[in-house]
């Protein structure tokens, strides 16, 4: 079975699960699929299989990628941050990066929808690392 077939099978299995366990969510997804197929709504993102053997999510309007790195390596790095200690968080959701004033402003002014979601986190991270 090709990777594309595996991805489609996983999608179908997930849809079947939602249909059984969360019928209201399933109905919304069916509606979304219908309005995309009829051209009433344009898709914003696409799942792209890279030659290096991983998937990335592409924003169709800009061609930019959400991960822009090997998503398998990224997922393993995130899994390695999980700790079962009772103190503190169960995992570190974000990488610890130092941001410059310019980088924070760039994220703040970005028109990329998935970057706008980073605005508050980037601002708080930058502020706390500074002070």
Describe the protein in words.
This protein is mostly helical. The chain is 53% helix and 8% strand. The chain has a two-stranded antiparallel sheet. The longest helix has 19 residues, at 3-21. It starts with a helix and ends with a helix.
Features:
8% strand, 131 residues, mainly alpha, extended, two-stranded antiparallel ribbon, 2 strands, single chain
Low-confidence stretches: none
What pattern of helices and strands is seen along the backbone?
HHEEHHHH
Described by strand count, sense and barrel closure, the largest sheet is: 2 strands, antiparallel
* Sheet with most strands: strand arrangement: 1-2
What share of residues is helical? 40-55%
Termini separation: 53 Å
Tally of helical segments = 6
Query: Over the alpha carbons, how many angstroms does the gyration radius reach?
Result: 19 Å
Structural class: mainly alpha
Number of DSSP strands?
2
**Quaternary class:** single chain
Content of β-strand: 5-15%
Shape summary: extended
Could you give a quick summary of the protein structure above?
With 131 residues, the chain is mainly alpha-helical. It is built from six helices and two strands, in the order H-H-E-E-H-H-H-H.
Topology:
Layout lengths: L2 H19 L1 H15 L7 E5 L5 E5 L11 H10 L20 H9 L3 H4 L2 H12 L1
Antiparallel strand pairs: 1-2
Helix pairs in contact: 1-2, 4-6
């Amino acid at each position: 079975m090709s990777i594309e077939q595996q991805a489609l099978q996983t999608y179908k299995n997930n849809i079947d699960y939602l249909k059984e366990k969360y019928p209201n969510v399933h109905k919304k997804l069916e509606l979304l699929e219908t309005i995309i197929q009829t051209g009433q709504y344009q898709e914003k993102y696409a799942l792209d299989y890279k030659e290096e053997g991983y998937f990335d999510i592409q924003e169709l309007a800009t061609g930019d990628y959400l991960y822009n790195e090997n998503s398998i390596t990224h997922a393993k790095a995130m899994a390695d941050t999980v700790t079962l200690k009772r103190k503190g968080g169960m995992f570190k959701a974000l990488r610890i990066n130092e941001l410059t004033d310019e980088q924070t402003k760039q994220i703040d002014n970005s028109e990329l929808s998935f970057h706008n979601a980073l605005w508050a986190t980037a601002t708080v991270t930058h502020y706390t690392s500074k002070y």
